[in-house]
Amino acid sequence: MKHNSLIVLLILLIFFVISFLTNILGPLIPDIIKSFELSIGLAGFLPFAFFVAYGVMSIPSGILVEKYREKPVLLGAFFLAFAGALLFALIPGFSIALFSLFLIGVGMAMLQVVINPLLRVAGGEAQFAFNSVLAQLFFGAASFLSPLLYSYLVSNVHSGTETSSVITLFNQLVPANLKWVSLYWVFAVTALLMVAVIYVVRFPEVELKDDERIDTGAAFKDLLGNKTVWLFFCGIFAYVGTEQGIANWTSQFLQTYHGVDPATTGASVIAYFWGLLTIGCLLGLLLLKIFDSRRVLMLFAGGAIVSLLAGLFGPKELAIYAFPMTGFFASVMWSIIVSLALNSVPHHHGTFSGILCTGIAGGAVVPLIIGGLGELVGLKFAMLFLLITLSYIFSIGLWARPLVNNATVKSFRELFE
């Protein structure tokens, strides 16, 4: 039991690190654009380089886990993340940034495939639902904290006031005009520490259940011929595209249209976007006990559309609050879309999950489209593209026909039983 508890804690730490490395790109984009003199269109290739790795590696990662087991895949994933972060920290440049982000993205895709089955075995099936929610809270906490760390580093590195030995070290490692690169040194050290921790920890034997295996043969072919599979794949694609479209372009939008400093207020807005997304998960759990998940999905998608429009066309004071609220309304979308998807197909759930995970590539394509449109019509109108993805998510609540509906309570008293 003690050993398993250690593995659960390690997995929660992995969730934290995945989020820490994944969701910092949004606050960094204004700095990257300024430092490398990029157009908005070129900047759109930054999230593309990272999230396209999910489309490339999600299914191969499942095959690697079955062949080599969990520990080697985890070690390989964090070593790739370390290599990517260190490469960019040593040689900061736009082309290196694209390759670095792709390497880190491949590592993160490999981690995502490993950790859920491992969490089920380490924590026990009876505690799996609770531990999964706990993992999402760790994921959200890191997304909230990483923009704040970015603000701290940018405010203190090369500021003339050496507040700590770490800041003094960063003053020597990073150029004065690229203070934000210090964050990639943090990423490199973090990933290397995770390699060391995972190397010394002994892992339990994980026997994959049928609904966790990825079959690239008959099951894969069967699912690809199913229209419902494609519709839900597009749902995941639209959700991750929406999430990353907002997270990656909000800070740049606020700087362009409202003169907001991306290193302080802009980073705080993104931090609260992720913070409210995490808090919304808790409210979503309660609502799913009371209402049909399809109605909850439509309600939250509608709220996200209203918040997005308020952020884009409202004054600065409203935008600063409206964009984080889109995170709150996005909070339940992933879990509801995935559960509706798996409940709409009677078999091959492991392979279906692998196909759904490739939909995370929406985080690559949608920000790239927004960047391209931004070159033509300006960022404000380019971000209206998110109305298409949010409308598709809303439509899922209308056409989804799950074989099993989510369990709801008949009375308030049942909530506590």
From TrEMBL:
The chain crosses the membrane at residues 7-26, 38-60, 72-91, 97-116, 128-150, 183-201, 229-249, 269-288, 295-313, 319-342, 354-373, 379-400. InterPro entries: MFS, MFS_dom, MFS_trans_sf, MFS_TsgA-like. One of its GO terms (molecular function) is transmembrane transporter activity. Signal peptide: none annotated. Keywords: Cell membrane, Membrane, Transmembrane, Transmembrane helix. PROSITE patterns: MFS. It is found in: Cell inner membrane. Residues 7-403 form the Major facilitator superfamily (MFS) profile domain. Gene3D superfamilies: MFS general substrate transporter like domains. It comes from the Bacteria. It is a multi-pass membrane protein. GO terms for cellular component: plasma membrane. It holds the Pfam family MFS_1. This is MFS transporter.
